[in-house]
Design brief:
Oligomer: single chain
Shape: elongated
Radius of gyration: 36 Å
Distance between the termini: 81 Å
Largest sheet: none
Length: 179
Amino acid sequence: MKNNIDTWFEEQRNCFDIAEPLNDHEKRFITKLQQHNEKQTTRLGFNWWKPFAAAAAVLILVFAGFSTFASKSNVDLAAVSPEMAKTQDFFTKAIEEELYNINEARTPETQKLVNDALKQLKTLEIEYDKLTADLAKSGEDKRVIYAMITNFQARINLLNTVLEDINSIKNTDYENKLL
């Protein structure tokens, strides 16, 4: 392989550009570069990148301020106190566990029941999002906190009921197969 490359370079030796530039090459190059820069400056008439950079910096600051404000306005139950954070974690884990159990127990016969339950769950989650907005507006209003906890309980009760209904349907199917 190396011999092939060496041979090729030997064959192409006369094709390489080995000419030296003229003595005033650098001077002519700098002159052309300056002429090109003058044309660019006169064509644009104004250097636009500085105002664009300033506008971009202002936009970044505005968006950063807006996102900070938006995150403060989206307060949840965990922001109220450490006890409420534990309560929220408990309910969240319980809901996730119930959802997992429902998905594991899902069958073609119970599919409609599960889909309806998921729609109701989504409605409760939307209500919870509204409650978090209310909590941000009202501060730590105990009525809103109670409503948020009640919302969590309603979600868990819904999922428990669905799981019981799924088990009931499965037991009925099993008993029908035995008969």
